């Protein structure tokens, strides 16, 4: 009779190998979920501003993205709000997108795209 405190352990495949012992390709380094969310939010905001080619300048300012665009008619307020903007302020070619405290990291992501 077995010992009551004994446990059965399952033997696993060697590290880096699948069930049949095949070598797995290395996984890419994944960004954190927050970074991934910021990147997709930045991409959606860029689309709402008329694309990367329509943006001349972008700057993060506490809760807003201050942008200068080439053609303000390409700015889609509905798309910006769908991307998470709380509001959009248009003054000619100067567009302010109110997005909250994520403005600086999103501005950095957009600058990386430019």
Task: Walk me through what this model shows.
By secondary structure, this protein is an alpha+beta fold. The protein is 29% helix and 20% strand. It is built from three helices and four strands, in the order αββαββα. It has a four-stranded antiparallel β-sheet with strand order 1-2-4-3. It is globular and about 55 Å long. The mean pLDDT is 80.
| Fraction of residues in helix | 25-40%
- How many extended strands? 4
Spatial sequence of strands, sheet with the most strands: 1-2-4-3
Largest sheet: 4 strands, antiparallel
Number of individual domains: 1
**Low-confidence segments:** none
CATH architecture: 2-Layer Sandwich
Give the termini distance in whole angstroms.
Answer: 71 Å
The overall pLDDT, averaged over residues, is 80
CA gyration radius, whole angstroms: 24 Å
Output the CATH topology: Gyrase A, domain 2
**Any idea of the CATH class?**
Alpha Beta
Order of helices and strands: HEEHEEH
Fourth-level CATH superfamily: Glucose permease domain IIB
**Strand fraction:** 15-25%
> Which structural class is indicated by helix and strand composition?
alpha+beta
Q: What's the tally of helices? A: 3
Keywords:
about 110 residues; alpha+beta; Gyrase A, domain 2; 4-stranded antiparallel β-sheet; 3 helices; about 20% strand; globular
Question: What's this, in brief?
Answer:
This protein is of the alpha+beta class and 114 residues long.
């Amino acid at each position: 009779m077995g010992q009551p405190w004994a446990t059965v352990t399952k033997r696993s495949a060697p590290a880096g190998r699948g069930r049949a012992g095949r070598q797995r390709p290395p996984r890419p380094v994944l960004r954190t979920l927050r970074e991934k969310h910021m990147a997709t939010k930045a991409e959606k905001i860029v689309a709402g501003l008329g694309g990367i080619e329509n943006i001349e300048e972008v700057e993060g300012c506490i809760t807003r993205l201050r942008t200068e665009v080439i053609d303000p008619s390409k700015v889609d307020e509905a798309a910006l709000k769908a991307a998470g903007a709380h509001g959009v302020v248009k003054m000619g070619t100067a567009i302010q997108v109110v997005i909250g405290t994520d403005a600086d990291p999103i501005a950095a992501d957009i600058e990386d795209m430019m």
